[in-house]
Design goal:
alpha/beta; Rossmann fold; DNA polymerase, domain 1; 2 domains; 8 helices
Length: 226
């Protein structure tokens, strides 16, 4: 097949390390940092699905608010006393998540080769703007697309369709890159060519469909353009 004509990246978990908040969580709650970061993320994704599929989206909330709600739930579940100060610190840390080290170089290579790039994310616009600036990725992305415009989270088809509309190309000509297996699967079902970045050596979803390719870091994006 010809190489893709454009590349879309998921943001949280793919460009930005959602588990980097575990370092601060460990300082605030010794011995519970990793457990909190994992449960926080799992509940966050569960909430996106819940508000998307219930009552035709009538219960939609921006990703920032779901992130706060899932933090509060995770702390209650783990029996952790989440003070207002702790919550503020952790939410601010989430706003400025660590970026994976290879991001900038990969995006620079794609720009040099004239490949349009973008983010297609569950994050709301303000969150994404801060994250992109904090990671020093301004000027390396042609589009920063939030599902907030359709008020439906991935894996809803309307969320994935935003990338097609922004890039003005069919999904089959666009490479969608995600570290989240569920997201790579949803994008594959939608019609994108997909790269699952399996950073944590996990099994893929057992639903009868595989991504176009599987890699271990964002560097594997460049293999589509050799």
């Amino acid at each position: 097949m010809d190489h893709p004509k454009a590349v879309l990246f998921d943001a949280y978990g793919t460009l930005f390390d959602v588990y980097s908040v575990g370092l601060l969580a460990e300082q605030l709650f010794p011995g519970q940092g990793q457990a909190l970061s994992v449960l926080w993320r799992d509940k966050q994704i569960e909430y996106t699905r819940l508000v998307t599929t219930s009552s035709e989206g009538a219960h939609y909330q921006p990703f920032w608010e779901l992130t706060r709600a899932s933090l509060r739930y995770a702390c209650k579940r783990l029996g952790l006393a989440l003070t207002a100060e702790h919550e503020q610190h952790l939410m601010n840390e989430y706003r400025h998540l660590s970026a994976f080290p290879e991001n900038r170089e990969v995006l620079q290579v794609l720009r040099t080769r004239g490949i349009p790039t973008g983010i297609l994310s569950n994050g709301d616009p303000q969150m994404l703007g801060v994250a992109v600036r904090s990671a020093g990725l301004e000027g390396l992305l042609d589009h920063v697309i939030s599902v907030d415009t359709v008020r439906k989270y991935k894996t809803h088809p309307e969320a994935y369709r935003l990338g097609v509309q922004a890039l003005k190309r069919p999904a089959s000509q666009i490479l969608f890159v995600s570290c989240n297996a569920w997201d790579a699967l949803g994008a594959t079902w939608f019609g994108y060519r997909t790269l699952w970045v399996n950073r944590y050596r996990l099994p893929f979803e057992e639903l009868g469909t595989q991504p176009t390719r599987t890699g271990s870091t964002l560097d594997d994006v460049l293999s589509f353009f050799e």
